[in-house]
Amino acid sequence: MTELCEKLEREVLPLVSRPSRYTGGERNVPETDPDGVELSFLLAFPDVYEIGMSHLGIRVLYDILSRRPEVAVERVFAPWVDMERLMREKDVPLFSLESCTAAREFDVIGFTLQYELHYTEVLTMLDLAGVPLRAADRSEGEPYIVGGGPCAYNPEPVAAFFDLLVMGDGESAVVELTDVLLEARHLGLTRDETLRRCAALRGVYVPSLYEERFAPPSGEGAGPGGSPSDDGQGGSGGDEVPGGPGASHGGVFVGTLPVDDAAPPRVERRVEASLSYAYHPTSPIVPATEATHDRLAIEIMRGCTRGCRFCQAGMVTRPVRECPMEDVARLVREGIASSGHDEVSLVSLSASDHSELGKLVPLLNEELFERRVSISLPSLRADRFGLELADGIGRVRKSGLTFAPEAGSQRLRDVINKNETEDAVIETVDTAFSAGWKRVKLYFMIGLPTETDEDLDAIGDLVRRVRETARRHRRGAAINVSISPFVPKSHTPFQWERQDSVEETRRKEALLRPRLRMKGVKVSLRDPEVSLVEGVLARGGRELSDVIEDAWRGGARFGGWSETFDGGVWLRALEESGLDAQDYLRERDPDEALPWDHVDAGPSREFLLEERARALEGKSREDCRTEGCYSCGACGTDALLSSEIPEPRPVDERATGAFRRRARRRQVQNGSPGNRWRVRYAKEAGARFLSHLDLTRAWARAVSSSGLPVVYTQGFNPRPRLSFGPPLPVGSTGEAEFVELELSKAVADEEITGALAVGLPPGLRVLDAAALKSRGSAAAEACAAEYVIDNLGTLEELDEDALAERVSRVRSLDAIDVERGDRVRTLKPAKGVLSAGPEGGKPLRLRVVLELGREGDLRPVDLVGLLYGEDGGEPKLARVHRTTLFRCPSAGGLERMT
After folding, report:
1. Tell me: the pLDDT tens digits for 236-285?
2. 177 and 311: one domain?
3. In whole angstroms, what is the distance from residue 598 CA to residue 234 CA?
4. What is the pLDDT of residues 864-898, one digit of tens each?
5. Residue 197: domain span
6. Quick check: is 609 in a domain?
7. Cα angle value 169/171/174 (rounded, 5°)
8. In the chain, how long is the greatest CA-to-CA distance?
9. Phi/psi at 257 (nearest 5 deg)?
10. Does any domain span residue 522?
């Protein structure tokens, strides 16, 4: 264990919420030979672990980089506010998840930019890493800071912070970028020389090689936004003024132009030519702690041609590329075998548009149903959802269905080109609830172009019809309605449109609330100040880099989280920079130069303007895959790239063998008693910070992927039938932990231990297994536990006699009040502490036996706190190891459990 890891273990992690966010220890993390590494990547996601590990993109890039023996790749996620505070107090740098290596020691730190309000977390992570925030301040030897993701399509607000950004698909881009960086290292090139080479790669934007240009506001020919040049970009009508925000020049922005011959005038996005088996992880990392989307995700299609005019993703990911059905089936088979997940998510912008979906879902169900693995489609269209698809994806469990009508009236749906009728939505809801679904979620936007109050009324009318339809099948039907303000995004037909002010959004929300007040309908409204900041950052230029940094220094953190967002910090930062938020929300003139005009995201300016004109006329378009090409400019063959991507890592043969064994054994679904086994296992240091809930999930995956004939629970959400011994507190280890499982037939003890060991994450180790003859459980039998406690802080300064005297004093207490979170519990040490005393040696340790149960619910950390008394010290820093569980026979005394 490194010195940094030891410091985290002893001084930091016991004091933070969700410490498992920072410890790694996941299943399927590849091993790297340090002797062969020439380049190190740190993939950074600027949000907490459970959000970042739900993102498929970072998993794909991680997997591709890990296939190269000369490259080391690790991950880091944004520390939550309590962790950031402690890291600063304890002088702990940002560190990687896999090896606790300081982030600054990596050659490349690559950020995924999914959301504009993540920008402040980028600065937090750079600052904690000790890396200068501004690219211009970085010297030779500093990590290259790389950005990518949808926000990179308008890179200018964060241009000051990144050495380079990647536009478009990242799979082959990361391979080519790696090659350039390796070659530059071998040639001994400087930082500037290396960046100039990177700029020659398609899709790579190096901000330092460009500058903003401005024209005098009253110069001849310089209108409100200058005049468009021949190539469709903003041009200058007078003498251009270089650099800086427009406010400081009093000029009119005319474009972002290269200042170096190595930089192309326009940066063209990357587009992968295909989407196949090679682009996916076959042994995906399985989070040890809970992820927001805890499932196996397979991207079955990239791109969308439905043409929703507000949707940036649908515009910039064209053309459509499908992963072949055979590849999807193979990826699912291998992914489930190596992960133990009980859900497969078929991911796409519009998954129901995959041409082979009707064959794919039944094919997957043939292999997955008996193993109780469900199929989900997170993005569905009402006009493609039928009874056959409903039965297919709801065969194992029916979680929830999500549809996005986006607007309440057909008129407004035509404006935004959402080609779904109200009748189609109602028919879909009728189909879903008749097939057994219990809830549906509907997404709407307010503030869309041409919207009127009558369109808002129509949202209420549509939700009422949905509710009535659902309740005809199920009286307790749940309808969740999510309403968000419209935010114009770059490279869409609506990039020129105005965004509603905060006041106007609140007026519309007030109008909607009474119309949506219905039993069984839950409404979620987004904070309009969040959308205001998003809108500013989405359509601004380089002048916003100062605003972002000022807001960050003012305390802006985790803007996407309601408990931490502070709109006032952002408004003050804008004001101090001499900027007005309303200037960013206004309607743009089509002749006006835009900050992202130098980025070619696919669809041409002419096509976007044509779509905007059709929108304002209320004219929709059909899907170009069925109605013919509309010449959007995004699908030319010269845009498609095909680079050599390393082959996926092979799936562990033990896991695939278990998968094949499961195929020959019909899993038992009923609730019959079956054959019960008790498994004893150790929770070691690598799993110390996993919660009891984390452990139950890890064991469920291990059992599901073991190949054993498992008995499943009945009902809505079938799971392996497991029971657990008394939970250990987070931060504790133990060697007397128990899990009990039921099998449909007798199996040798050795086969059970071997099969389970394959699927457990590091830090959980099977010790033995034995058949149970009774129906009793470890949780019910255990009446006491023995613990060894060390890292006792100020108590270690006492000699054994002094510590023994304190122990005796605590054991004499009849009752004591102890704070637990926001509650106060009255505990009884005299009854709960069965034995306690110092254990010889240095450092001093304590061995105690505590009663388990409602009357003696005294935790080891409570006891340590009582022993500290008024001396001070932090009980949570004590290390606790459970050595034994005891049962209490009727004859009295304690009996060791096995």
Report:
1. 344 555 444 344 445 899 999 999 999 999 999 999 998 999 889 999 99
2. no
3. 9
4. 999 998 877 899 999 999 999 999 887 778 999 98
5. 3-24+32-206
6. no
7. 105
8. 103
9. -125, 150
10. no
